[in-house]
Prior knowledge:
Shape: elongated
Strand content: under 5%
Structural class: mainly alpha
Amino acid sequence: MEPELVWRLLVGQLFFFMISLASVFRSGGGEAKGDVDLGGEPLWILVPLRIAGLLLWGSVLAYIFAGDMIAWGRWSLPFVVRVAGLLLALASLPLVMWMFKHIGLNLTVTVKTRREHDLIKTGPYRWIRHPLYTFAGATFLGIAIASGCWLTLVGWVAGGIFLVLRLPLEEQGLIERFGDEYRDYIKETGAFFPKLG
């Protein structure tokens, strides 16, 4: 079997396992926790963030299903670097599962909270306010490295930039919902990584 085909199969299994995992945990959330207003995000964040997501997901899917078609968007990485990317993605998946177990049905696709939103402070939320961004970001970074696709990395970087730009809006909504409890939570935790000291 051609070595690159093996990489494509491995990346494909990781990617589809991650999507299946997210689908299982996210199914039924809208009905159980109340509707979410999809407004509230300015277009200068909403549009580029969706474009970055399309680039990220599209380049991964193109690599998996039509590797030759996206050969121009790849660069040659040493075998050990690609293995490290694969291991990073694999190590991140249990963390994504851990996060989903604790966030439950509070997860939304927008900066708005659900009508019956809970402030979660268990599991990874004990130390990090936005572990989905951290853990899913690590998974996609690992996939970008394992596939050797710089196009995926561009989508990952662009998406990360716009998530960071969106973060103050998201946190302002949580402050409006939970008040001083969320302000204290900000003091105790890091946004993407645990606070030191």
